[in-house]
Design brief:
This protein has 348 residues and is of the alpha/beta class. The chain is built from 16 helices and ten strands. Helix content is 51%, strand content 13%.
Length: 348
């Protein structure tokens, strides 16, 4: 069958070239920088470690966080954040959640107010309970409506490999959402707009907690029945909290919710699942995370999720048990027994 042309109805129109800055040179930030460059944009990739940036500039690859992928010609690692942000029309923040406030408090003055700002971080700030776009709004003194969130089932390595990937862009401004969608949808990546910013962000954060639980189940060798039940009931408690906080239930059934949940609970590249597997096999949290190059967001998010559940009066038994295993004195087997011995209820 002949390949359809770029102007065929229903196919994305090639994006106009933009100046793009990606803040955060971990695996996901690097993969998004590669994707944006392949889409024809001029991309500056900034990370906090100047020595690592110099190495990336010399070797034209991120050997630390995403080895094996050469940078396209339009991608330039940049050590000076002011240079990275200068003239940027689209700025993607891919900083881990626990460092996000600190990083943007230090560099936010260089951000142009007219730039589209997209959060690609999945997390919830501890104590404040702020979603990542709310945190950026707080630090940068920008209206929340002006910030988007990119989420969905997307391993960095698979996107860099060119495997077909679909994600959701949570954005309350339809015009901005369409521009960002157009800019990033190219080749293997397809971006879907979603005006439910709250749902997109909460789903992307909460699924990491359930992924840790799924890893524990796998580490205990409890089989696929257990994993399937955990994913289903995990989705239920994710949705209950998200809807209580203002999300649309349909979002939890889409890419940012069910899609990302299944990926993170079952995929071999999932860091959150990997931590859970190690704990299920008998290692401590410290042992499970020791030497990890990249952050397993669920380890941090479980504390925030638990705080939000208590604040909004939502029962989240899986989240509670994950918290007790990671930070209490409960063993994985005891956590399973606690879940199975809960009072019997209707499914919904």
């Amino acid at each position: 069958m002949q390949e359809a042309s770029a102007t065929t109805p229903g196919r994305p129109v090639p994006p106009r070239q933009l100046r793009v800055a990606v803040i955060g040179a971990g695996s996901w930030g690097t993969a998004l920088a590669i994707q944006a460059s392949r889409a024809g944009h001029r991309v500056a990739l900034w990370g906090h470690d100047a020595a690592r940036t110099a190495r990336m500039l010399k070797e034209r690859t991120n050997a630390t966080y995403l080895p094996g992928f050469d940078f396209p010609p339009g991608l330039d690692p940049v050590a000076d954040v002011a240079v990275a942000l200068e003239g940027a029309e689209l700025v993607i923040s891919a900083v881990p959640s626990r460092f996000l406030r600190q990083v943007w408090a230090g560099i936010g003055a260089a951000l142009h107010q007219d730039a589209h700002l997209v959060s690609a971080t999945k997390g919830i700030e501890e104590d404040s309970g702020l979603r990542m776009t709310e945190l950026l709004s707080d630090v940068l003194e920008r209206p929340p409506r002006s910030i988007s969130a990119l989420s969905g089932p997307s391993f960095a390595r698979e996107l860099a490999q060119g495997f077909p990937t679909a994600v959701a862009l949570g954005c309350e401004d339809p015009e901005a959402a369409a521009e960002v969608q157009q800019a990033l949808s190219h080749g293997p990546l397809r971006v879907y707009r979603n005006r439910d910013l709250i749902g997109v962000e909460l789903a992307g954060a909460l699924k990491n907690v359930i992924a840790v639980a799924a890893g524990i189940v796998d580490g205990l060798g409890l089989g696929t029945n257990s994993r399937a039940a955990l994913i289903c009931r995990g989705l239920k408690e994710m949705a209950e909290l998200a809807v209580r906080m203002g999300a649309q239930s349909a979002t939890l059934m889409g890419l940012a919710g069910l899609g990302d949940l299944v990926l993170t609970c079952t995929g071999p590249l999932s860091r959150n699942r990997g931590v859970g597997v190690a704990i299920g096999e008998g290692r401590t949290l410290e042992q499970a995370t020791d030497g990890m190059q990249m952050v397993a967001e669920g380890v941090v998010t479980v504390r925030s999720a638990r705080q939000l559940a208590q604040r909004y009066g939502v029962e989240m038994p899986i989240t509670e048990q994950v918290f007790e295993v990671l930070y209490g004195d409960l063993s994985p087997r005891q956590a399973i027994d606690a879940l199975l011995s809960r009072r019997l209820v209707d499914e919904w």
